[in-house]
Amino acid sequence: MRKLLISALAMVALMPPAMSSAQAARSAGVADDAIPGSPARGAAFAAKQCASCHAITADGVSPRSDAPPFGEVARKYADYRLDWELEAIASVGHYAMPPKAMTAIQIADVTAYLRSLYDKPRDDRHRR
Ligand code: HEC
Fold first, then answer.
1. Which of 35, 46, 74, 78 is 20 to 30 A from 128, alpha carbon to alpha carbon?
2. Does the C-beta of 75 come closer than 6 Å to ligand 1?
């Protein structure tokens, strides 16, 4: 019990520096999506968790007509923080889309996968 408490305290103590360096990187304009994810893992996750509604390839047709194909999502978010959008979707959904629980790693992986579907030359200074 005591050991647990100590490790919980240690974790809390470790958090602020980790967050502030991420924030510093972001404000310097070098951080894109917060955590670099694995496109391959993201593809596997999307195949299991998203493909019943969304086309998950760059130019597929979605099984559910009101769910945008992932190629379209990738284009729409080319200049925006897709990981933030997925964080919101994970907790509250998106209009007609029900919430879809995702861990931080899963969000990073799906973000990396979606980024791989659309290869616009990106200007990070315009990313918000
Ligand atoms: C039950 C069907 C369903 C599943 C499963 C599903 N979605 Fe969706 N999703 C939708 C629908 C419908 C919309 C369109 C919602 C709207 O804008 O009204 C949507 C929209 C989105 C959008 C677009 C948001 C925007 O700004 O346009 C993203 C991103 C997204 N989904 C990601 C995912 C990911 C990632 C998964 C898998 C982890 C997933 N979805 C699984 C139905 C689904």
1. 46
2. no
**From ligand 1's centre to the CA of 26, what distance in Å?**
26
The finding on whether 50 has its CB within 6 A of some atom of ligand 1 is: yes
CA distance 87 to 82: 9
Domain ranges across the chain = 1-31, 33-120
Q: Of how many residues is the chain composed? A: 128
Superfamily covering domain 33-120: Cytochrome c-like domain (1.10.760.10)
Tell me the per-residue pLDDT of 81-100, one tens digit each, with 9 for 90 and over.
999 999 999 999 999 999 99
Task: Give the predicted TM-score (pTM) of the model.
Answer: 0.76
- Integer Cα distance of 83 and 33 in angstroms: 6
